[in-house]
Amino acid sequence: MAIKDTFGRTHTYLRISVTDLCNLRCFYCMPEEGVELTDKAHLMTLEEIVSIAGEFVKEGVDTIRLTGGEPLVRKNFAFLIEELAKLPVKLKLTTNGILLDKYFELFEKVGLKHLNISLDSLEQAKAAFITKRDYFERIMRNIETALERGFTVKLNVVVIKGVNDNEIVDFVRYTKHRNLSVKFIEFMPFKGNQWDWSKGVSEEEILTDVRKELGEVVALEKPAHSTSNNFQVPGFDGSFGVVSTVTKPFCQDCNRLRLTADGKMKNCLFARNETDLLSAWRSGAAISPLIHQNIAQKKYSRDGMTVFAKEEFEQNRTMIGIGG
Questions:
Q1: Where is the Radical SAM core domain (predicted)?
Q2: pTM above 0.85, yes or no
Q3: Is residue 247 a contact partner of residue 228, using CB atoms and an 8 Å limit?
């Protein structure tokens, strides 16, 4: 039975946060005062992640993306990947890239080919300012290694005015001789991240900057369910896209579901209501009815928010608590 909402959208893509731990402290993701970590007893075990993922697959999910926090800091992550690879799904990973060198061979072995790597600056000092840690050289080395080994690589860049918006063109230039995609992501509001759209940079502004420096760009065909509008500078090996969640929502053919590290199902990144699948699973109850009940509550766009009012988005989790 397909996981279908009341707008006729079939959901086949599950994002699973495997941990709320991270080895970086990006300010747009984690509040300055830090977060209260989930007690280990309330987190999904690796076996529970695999079993619950299997229930989603029975309902039609064919793509699973692992996120965090930073998923690669989860203890015994190799076991998790090997078990999930036995499911009939396409596996993908979102990571900050620090620990990738430990897993390239395993990913090749199980067929995980799609990597989204978070990188908000091409300047070492600025990257350290954003992340509060300095792993820049290791991350850049792992990006180059991933490309050399034939992985499909996307760089996730959260663009914030006055912080890294002056690097937009530099990121596009980075694609000239590299077959990768840069995804510019509009600054989005979550609990505790001091969001204000005056710090945001829109798709229109991004394209204006690129055209001013590099000339006209070509719009690429948008795949079904894509979260970005995609472009390429003629003659460049790679491409770039813009995830315009704030200025141009792309919800019309959404096929994404989310499972937090503590086993709560969210039908939208901005959903304030969640369904506790983990407690039901541990009690021996069937979770398929809960999955369908949750998706039946899905709003058409951004959990019904037409504007981002603080009293609404502060009811959501922190970004690190949701999963990237």
A1: 6-225
A2: yes
A3: no
